[in-house]
Amino acid sequence: MKFLRFVVVFLLASVWVCGCASTTTRPLSSVPLPQYRIIPPDPNLPHEIKAFSGKWFGVWDKTLDHVLVVEEINYPHVIAIYAWGNAAKWKASKGWSRQKGQFVDGELKFSLRRPAIVIYRMQSDGSLDAIYEWIGGVARAKMIRVK
Questions:
Q1: Percentage of residues in the chain with pLDDT exceeding 70?
Q2: Which of 15, 77, 101, 146 could disulfide-pair with 110, CB 3.0 to 4.6 Å?
Q3: What are phi and psi of 119, to 5 degrees?
Q4: Alpha carbon distance 140, 49 (integer Å)
Q5: Residue 146 and residue 131: Cα distance in Å, rounded?
Q6: How confident is the model at residue 92 (pLDDT cuts 50, 70, 90)?
Q7: Where are the domains of the chain?
Q8: pTM as predicted
Q9: CATH assignment of 47-145, given 3.40.50.1820, 3.40.50.2000, 2.40.128.120, 3.30.980.40?
Q10: Backbone dihedral region of 105: left (phi > 0), alpha (psi from -120 to 50 degrees) or beta?
Q11: pLDDT tens figures, 46-88
Q12: CA 7, CA 13: separation in Å to the nearest integer?
């Protein structure tokens, strides 16, 4: 019986470790990015705005890998790279686009070509809550800073 408990605990621990490892390597391998340069934001900007600067990773509805690189903040405007991986379920092929966005009421918003609107909200834990809205649907992601 002790051996069986050991096997179960070992398998659960293996699944947990593998899950953590794949999360940390996914943004580097599955989402294409062009060359980019993150320009430090104006030090006089409020912390709530400067905090958006950098590279972020999340997964839309546990299906599509997503990277956001906020390259430059010229408040209220932003230049960023919006990138995504492959998702057969959604018939999505990896790609990226450089976008102009802006801050509206503390949220970072982009209008994409699909047409779609993407909204990022800073959370108290330093992550971004992301919402992707298009005609007929909404997808969500929690974005974590990766650089």
A1: 80
A2: 101
A3: -125, 130
A4: 21
A5: 19
A6: confident
A7: 1-30, 47-145
A8: 0.80
A9: 2.40.128.120
A10: left
A11: 999 999 999 999 999 999 999 999 999 999 999 999 999 999 8
A12: 10
